[in-house]
Amino acid sequence: MSQNGGNVESLQMGFKTLVTQIEGVQKGSKDSIKAFKALGVRVKDNNGKFRKQEDIFNDVVSRLQKVTNSTDKQRIAQ
Predict the structure, then answer these.
(1) What pLDDT score was predicted for residue 30?
(2) Which secondary structure element, helix H or strand E, spans residue 14, and what is its range?
(3) Is residue 36 packed enough to be buried (19+ CB in 10 Å), middle (13-18) or exposed (0-12)?
(4) Residues 51-63: pLDDT tens digits?
(5) Residues 55 and 62 sit within 8 Å (Cβ to Cβ)
(6) Residues 61, 71, 16, 25: is their CA dihedral positive or negative?
(7) What is the model's pTM?
(8) Please, which pLDDT band fits residue 49 given cuts at 50, 70 and 90?
(9) Which of 39, 40, 45, 59 has its CA at a distance of 20 to 30 angstroms from the CA of residue 76?
(10) CB within 8 Å of 1: residues ≥ 6 apart
């Protein structure tokens, strides 16, 4: 697999995981809620409506880049 193919695949898996976690928040999953809180990422806007998945994804990526411990980064990203 090429370097670019691997990066695209990782991005797709990351987005799929994110969507699953957002759905978890919508269903009241404490683990999903905890994961977003650990990163300091809001999934709802000021009106209580869910933000766009793309915006949440960008926030998650930005926050994960700031986590320096790779073990913590993997634990949070799951």
Answers:
(1) 94
(2) helix 3-26
(3) buried
(4) 998 899 899 889 8
(5) no
(6) negative
(7) 0.72
(8) very high
(9) 45
(10) 9
